[in-house]
Amino acid sequence: MAYLARKITRPKWESREGFAAGEIPADAVTADLRTTGNTLSFWTCEPPPDDGIRAVVLALATGADRLDRRDLVWVEEEALRAKGIALNPSEGRTPVASLRGQHVDLIRLDWDVWPQSPPSWPGP
User: DSSP secondary-structure letter at 63?
Assistant: First the structure.
């Protein structure tokens, strides 16, 4: 089973004063789910904690300007496909040539592909 992983800013997703359980702050969405051309960037990997997730961390770290803490979220590829979300393989931006082919973009994203009720997110 393949997974897709993406870097997030975990503190933005954690519970905030004034938000009920399960409510997602707009700062988390606009910071971590920022799209370009209605696409969202992910890296493919094998089920965590397999070496595949380490490859994602390597690709993200070597593509950044500096080393920082990395928080990742991963989702089953099939769960996205079941919601009608299309994936497009694209070359990832990393100096590690062997990992560039592990990159995909979720494409043609619009409001209708998201669930009608908010997903439940794990707590801190």
Answer: T
